[in-house]
Design goal:
The complex is a heterodimer. By secondary structure, chain A is an all-alpha fold. Helix content of chain A is 57%, strand content 0%. The N terminus of chain A is likely disordered. In chain B, the strands form three sheets. A two-stranded antiparallel ribbon of chain B has the order 1-2. The longest helix of chain B is centred in the last third of the chain and has 73 residues. The chains are: A mainly alpha, B mainly alpha.
Chain lengths: 525, 869
């Protein structure tokens, strides 16, 4: 009956649905007589037109918030819909049960709509759900006496989270919207809990297979969690805690950290795709490690990542550094490993700046043995032979800094004792152990080569080794992020002198010049 | 101070030297002797004796003349000024004074309207007598003294008068001896004889003159008799004028011509072919040395080095076009001739245009020239006074003619070429349509409109004419226009390159024009190139940020890079246009993903450009080596257990890592070496697998050749073997050379020979040797003092300041003294005035008293008389 009327209305007067919905909501709120109109409003929720859905969702929010406030919803264990009719309840209870059932079906519909194709609908549904959750928190639908969770609408939040962590749909946008609610400490606590449970369930179900979409969603949600760093910061709650609930876990930072630990461990336990690894590692040292109650739990993960090689190793370095630095991690052969990370691809990796920043940190200690520093310097200069100019501008001062920091390495650029006699390069590039590679017996001929580099600034930087190095180090931190485009801009910004030198061999043809190479292999047509 | 001092000295000298001065000087009461403390030998003393009385009177006299006068004039506002010319100027002689006054008088009466009045109605006088009257007497007998011995300066005369002259005297002496043998004469006699002789000569001349005088008078009389017979009589004065005027004009013209003419300069002698060749060689050597210096990266003081740009049309004769803009300052009839030259130019331009129109109608050129010649003649006749302007305009004309001829020549050349090729009909038509002047385009679209319809040759011609018509020497805004034209042309070139199919031959034709424009405006060209590069780099950077990699630059950018290499020196240590180009190539070679044969081709084009650019300076280009290694890696069929690693954008294994593997042995056999088309960087139209394989082989060959070039380029680098280690491993172990053609095998072998298996030993690094810092020298500094008595020991400025201060002090004192003296003098004067006035009054009172007393006396006497009576 209602849907048909609804259809008539929609067919007859398209613009009037708003008025219709609000009128119905008013009626339902106004008197119990019109309780059946809830069906009509819910029918709008199933509509095809997103505007109607949005409108209906808002209406539902208003409606059920009002009803909740009035206590028109049944509290406690709800009997089934079918049994409602036959059961012997007084009419008042019957009405409240009926409304509670409608409330449940409304929530079902809203959850369903979170998978809607239109983002606006999704967003509205999410917001409405969270508002209802807030309303529910004020007027709990469970008996408080036996709930350790105080009166937090745990189930509702859990269902929202499950919906958010869809394994078939990318919910990144919605999750970023959801972040707003994660600011509330109790919401965050329960979300973390439910994420953990859900991930554990799904991972168990799929047994080690990779679920990229699901994992992406999980990661999006997890990376959006901003943990508080101090107990005093925890002040915003959806459910206001009262004095007698001192032992409520959601109000304690320690508990937060504990569930945070467990959640991440659960997530990282599952098999992750390569790019997910990278994503996790990128934020690892900033937004994960500091908030863990026991960061040492991550040692296994990080060492495993460090052993993977390539970019993942580079990224794991950062987390390892934190562990070594703050948590006394003893990492055997750390420098050896670092040494082996120095590969030509390092210069082209996306995380080059971060890597060299860390390498600079690791090598800043003056207590390192000279052979080690020499090995690094030599290896880097060997690798510099393949590096682009933007990297070279950073790398050359880097090497010079190493030598400057460790005066015993000065022999690399200044070996006057045997001056004059040519000798082979004793350095062994393939040797993995820096102690065995004979770097200290070598010289940095590579830098000599780079003095002939085509880019003038690089050539100038390489010229620095011709003179005794200055005692102060060059600050490489500004050079780390240098991009070729910046170089170009720098080049163009230089005020050109009033005269521009010109080629004096007059050009007559495109492919005929004094030193033609292009024309030797290519023709005009 | 010095000036006044000298003045004083002069006055004093005058006093001293005058007759009275000696008397005064001798008068011991006048002389004051300044006592000297020491007698210094060799010092001239000026002021040992003073004449205080004399100088005081002089000073008083001077004050009376100046200060007293002023004092008397004080508080008197009216003043009589005598404006008569030179009334109080004693220096001008009275006669001069009269003359000048007369001239001024005449000037005053001379009106403007009388400007062209050539003395028609007024009578000229000389000493009050009419000149016209005097003209009649112009044939008076010249006085004797005038003609006497005029220009007569024979050897004898001088000898006899002065007894001088070495050679002549001897000669004469010998002659005299012969004579003297016969009859010796005394000097007295000789002189008398000589006098006699000269007198006789004089008389003879006089009689001759008288005779001729008589004859002329007679002739005049005869003429007068005939004159009456002549029908038309012209007044004498006019006739004379007629006769004289053209003559004097000619002379004037001559004088002015000589005055205004540009000084004839000795023309350089024509150079022989050898000399020209040698000069060219020297010039090139100089430029090459300059290039090498820049390559070393020595920073030059820009103020020292002044860039001299040579235009494409420059003859290297030091003739600079820019100066032509300047207007010549000319005068015409005493007025500043401002716009004459401009008008001229305009006229000529019009003429030119007319010419062109006529040419379009295929008229004879000769006629045109004749006409022009006529014009020139007219000009000469009309304006004699502004010869210089004419000259300069003539020069302009000539130059323009030359240019026209240049255009025509090329035109003819093109015509003849085409006729040789015998493609007549429609090309001829197109040629006929081609105008001779083009205005500079305002935008690329306009340029495109102008060029699109034409053949490549004609496009080149059009641009050439455009440049000529808008040469910076021809107009003010032309410089800007041509600078823009360069940018538009480059853009047009880019459009040609990206059009499909790319019109590279057209671009090829436009290269000389681009080069010429670049030589004209290096700064603007450099700027344009920079903008192009940075724009492209910017877009590439953006795509890299989004995707992590970028597509290879299009053919337009490749062409731009190539052109930048043609226009600017790539060997410089740092160059505003080519260094960004290097960066661009580097960025493209490291960040662009290689996923197709086109990409490989584009990459190899970039590599060859890079190799070309560094071939002179032999600079190290790591990206090229990386890329070549990557390309070679693409040809390795079995990509396992490699002894090397490749650098991004290449990957050891992956989707496109076997792009250049040639599976077909047949294709290897049938492959022939031929240059790849540049258009292959954009789209490859290879239908069959065989063609694809051939293309692959061509790419591989190119790559190997580039590797070989690199090995020769970099063989002197210290890490040569390390740079090429990976390539060596790849070539020797993994590349299936055996299956390729023999070209490959040769190349392969050469490369492997060039790269040594074991690294070449090098001496270990040491710092550059430094000059030891010299020890501090502790010997005292000795300054020799040459001029005693002068202040020294300070810097020049301090000394100067001291000198000035000293001078100021002395001047101040002097001035103070003068003022004191002045006031004293004035006080004295005032006092004497008062005294005089008092005395006057006294005298008058006395007189009055006197007269009164006489009156009284008389009256009393009268009274007494009466009484007595």
């Amino acid at each position: 009956m209602a849907p048909s009327r609804d259809a008539n209305v929609s067919a007859g007067n398209k613009t009037n649905y708003k008025r219709d919905i609000s009128a119905k909501v008013e009626l339902v709120i106004g008197s119990r007589k019109h309780a059946n109109d809830i069906f009509d409003v819910l029918a709008y929720l199933q509509s095809d037109e997103e505007k109607r859905v949005v409108c209906a969702a808002h209406a539902c929010c208003r409606l059920f918030a009002a009803l909740l406030e009035r206590g028109d919803l049944f509290v406690g264990q709800l009997p089934g819909e079918e049994r409602l009719l036959e059961g012997s309840h007084n009419p008042d209870d019957k009405y409240r049960m009926f409304v509670r059932h409608r409330y449940n079906s409304c929530i079902e519909l809203l959850l369903e709509n979170m998978g809607h194709s239109v983002y606006q609908v999704k967003e509205t549904c999410l917001c409405v759900l969270m508002k209802l959750a807030a309303a529910e928190a004020k007027h709990p639908l469970q008996d408080q006496s036996w709930s350790e969770h105080y009166n937090f609408p745990r189930e509702l939040v859990q269902r929202v989270v499950q919906r958010l962590l869809s394994d078939s749909e990318d919910m990144a946008m919605l999750i970023s919207r959801f972040q707003e609610f994660l600011e509330m400490d109790d919401v965050r606590f329960y979300v973390i809990n439910s994420v953990r449970d859900y991930v554990a369930r799904l991972v168990d179900k799929h047994k080690g297979s990779v679920m990229p979409v699901f994992q992406n969603n999980v990661f999006a949600l997890l990376s959006n969690i901003n943990m508080p760093s101090q107990q005093s910061e925890m002040s915003s709650f959806m459910v206001k805690p009262e004095a007698k609930h001192d032992d409520w876990k959601a109000a304690k930072l320690k508990e937060h950290k504990r569930v945070f630990d467990r959640m991440w461990l659960m997530f990282l336990k599952s098999k992750l795709p390569g790019n997910m690894y990278k994503k996790v590692l990128v934020i690892f040292h900033e937004s994960i490690l500091p908030y863990m109650s026991e960061p040492t739990l991550m040692i296994d993960f990080l060492t495993a990542a460090y052993d993977v090689g390539g970019a993942i190793s580079l990224l794991a370095l950062n987390g390892l550094f934190v562990l070594i630095h703050k948590h006394n991690l003893e990492y055997p052969d750390f420098y050896k490993k670092l040494y082996s990370l120095m590969e030509p691809s390092v210069f082209h990796a996306k995380y080059r700046a971060r890597f060299f920043h860390l390498a600079n940190l690791f090598l800043s200690s003056t207590h390192l043995p000279a052979y080690l520093v020499a090995a690094f310097a030599k290896r880097l200069s060997r690798l510099a032979l393949t590096a682009p100019p933007a990297v070279l501008l950073m790398l050359l001062p880097f090497i010079c800094n190493l030598i400057c920091r460790h005066p015993s390495c000065r022999v690399l650029i200044h070996r006057p004792t045997t001056a004059g006699d040519p000798c082979d390069d004793p350095y062994i590039m393939e040797e993995e152990d820096p102690a065995q590679c004979h770097a200290l017996d070598s010289s940095l001929w590579e830098l000599k080569t780079l003095q002939k580099h085509y880019y003038p600034d690089v050539a100038k930087a390489a010229m620095a080794i011709n003179q005794p190095l200055s005692s102060t180090e060059v600050d490489v931190s500004e050079l780390l992020e240098l991009s070729p485009f910046e170089l170009m801009e720098r080049e163009l910004k230089e005020t050109p002198s009033d005269t521009v030198p010109l080629e004096f061999d007059s050009a007559t043809h495109l492919l005929r010049s004094a030193r033609e190479v292009l024309g030797a292999h290519f023709s005009l047509d | 101070m010095g000036k006044t001092a000298t003045k004083k000295k002069n006055l004093a000298d005058k006093v001293r030297k005058s007759k009275a001065a000696t008397q005064i000087k001798n008068n011991p009461f006048e002389v004051k002797i300044n006592r000297k403390k020491f007698d210094i030998l060799g010092r001239k003393t000026k002021h040992d004796v003073g004449l205080p009385g004399v100088s005081r009177t002089k000073a008083i006299k001077k004050r009376k003349e100046t200060l007293l006068k002023e004092f008397r004039q004080k508080h008197k506002s009216n003043k009589f000024i005598d404006r008569r010319f030179g009334e109080y100027d004693a220096k001008i002689a009275p006669e001069d004074k009269i003359l000048q006054r007369f001239a001024l008088e005449r000037q005053r009466t001379h009106d403007k309207k009388d400007l062209y009045n050539l003395n028609e109605d007024e009578e000229l006088t000389h000493y009050g007598q009419s000149l016209s009257e005097m003209e009649k007497l112009n044939d008076l007998v010249e006085s004797d003294s005038d003609s006497e011995e005029k220009g007569l300066l024979s050897a004898e005369l001088t000898e006899s008068h002065f007894g001088g002259g070495g050679g002549l005297l001897r000669k004469k002496g010998s002659g005299e001896k012969e004579e003297g043998d016969q009859k010796p004469k005394s000097r007295q006699e000789l002189i008398e004889e000589l006098i006699l002789k000269t007198k006789q000569e004089k008389r003879e001349r006089q009689t001759l003159k008288e005779e001729s005088q008589v004859l002329t008078e007679k002739l005049d009389q005869d003429w007068k008799t005939i004159q009456g017979l002549l029908a038309h009589k012209t007044p004498k004065g006019e006739r004379k004028d007629e006769g004289e005027k053209p003559k004097s004009d000619d002379y004037d013209v001559m004088v002015r011509e000589l005055g205004f003419e540009m000084k004839a300069q000795p023309s350089e002698k024509l150079k022989s072919a050898e000399e020209i060749a040698r000069e060219e060689k020297e010039r090139l050597q100089k430029l090459e040395a300059d290039r090498l210096r820049r390559m070393q990266g020595d920073m030059v003081d820009p103020s020292k080095k002044k860039q001299v740009h040579f235009s494409a049309d420059d003859l290297h004769d030091g003739f600079i076009l820019d100066k032509e803009d300047r207007k010549m300052l000319t005068y015409q009839d005493g007025k500043w001739n401002l716009d004459e030259a401009d008008e001229k130019v305009n006229e000529e331009e019009e003429e030119e245009e007319e010419e062109e129109e006529e040419e379009k109608e295929k008229e004879e050129l000769v006629e045109e020239d004749d006409e022009e010649g006529d014009d020139d003649d007219d000009d000469d006749d009309d304006h004699h006074s502004d010869l210089d302007s004419d000259q300069c305009s003539e020069e302009d004309e000539e130059r323009e003619d030359e240019e026209d001829k240049g255009v025509e020549e090329t035109d003819h050349k093109a015509l003849s070429m085409l006729s040789e090729e015998e493609k007549k009909a429609q090309q001829e038509a197109a040629k006929v349509e081609l105008p001779y002047t083009f205005k500079a385009p305002e935008g690329t679209s306009e340029l495109r409109e102008m060029l699109r319809e034409h053949l490549p040759e004609n496009q080149c011609l059009i641009v050439e004419r455009m440049i000529k018509c808008n040469h910076p020497s021809l107009g003010v805004g032309n410089k800007k226009k041509l600078q823009n034209l360069f940018a538009f042309l480059l853009e047009y070139v880019g459009e040609l390159a990206v059009s499909s199919p790319p019109q590279l031959s057209t671009i090829n034709k436009l290269i000389p024009q681009l080069y010429g424009l670049c030589q004209l405006f290096p700064g603007a060209a450099c700027k344009t190139m920079q903008t192009l590069l940075s724009d492209s780099m910017h877009t590439m950077e953006e795509t890299i940020e989004v995707k992590g990699w970028a597509a290879f630059p299009g053919l337009d950018m490749l062409i731009y890079l190539k052109i930048s290499g043609l226009l600017f020196p790539t060997s410089d240590f740092k160059h505003p246009a080519t260094t960004p180009g290097f960066l661009y190539i580097s960025q493209a070679l490291t960040k662009c993903r290689v996923s197709s044969l086109e990409d490989v081709t584009a990459g190899l084009v970039l590599c060859s450009l890079a190799v070309e650019f560094v071939s002179l300076s032999q600079r190290f280009f790591p990206e090229v080596i990386n890329f070549l290694l990557g390309v070679l890696h693409l040809a390795v069929p079995d990509q396992k257990s490699l002894g090397y690693s490749v650098v991004p954008p290449f990957r050891l294994a992956g989707k496109c890592s076997e792009l250049l593997v040639v599976p077909d042995a047949e294709a290897c056999k049938s492959w022939n070496r031929k240059p790849l088309p540049l258009s292959a960087t954009k789209s490859l139209k290879l239908s069959t697998e065989l063609e694809r394989n051939h293309h692959r082989l061509s790419l591989l060959y190119t790559c190997l050749d580039l590797v070989k070039r690199c090995t020769t380029l970099y063989k002197d680098l210290t890490s040569f073997s390390h740079i090429f280690k990976a390539i060596r491993v790849l070539l020797s172990k993994h590349l299936p050379v055996k299956s390729y053609a023999c070209h490959f095998q040769d190349l392969h072998r050469e490369i492997l020979e060039a790269i040594p298996e074991s690294p070449v030993p090098h001496p270990p690094l040491v710092f550059d040797k430094k000059k030891p810092i010299p020890l501090k020298l502790l010997t005292p500094k000795i300054v020799e003092i040459l001029d005693y008595g002068k202040k020294r020991g300070n810097t020049k400025e301090q000394r100067e300041k001291e000198r000035l201060q000293h001078k100021y002090k002395r001047e101040f004192k002097g001035a103070l003294r003068e003022i004191r003296k002045d006031s004293r003098f004035l006080a004295q004067e005032k006092l004497s005035d008062i005294l005089r006035r008092d005395a006057d009054r006294k005298r008058k009172v006395k007189e009055l008293y006197g007269s009164l007393s006489t009156q009284e006396g008389e009256w009393k006497a009268l009274k007494m008389k009466k009484k007595k009576r």
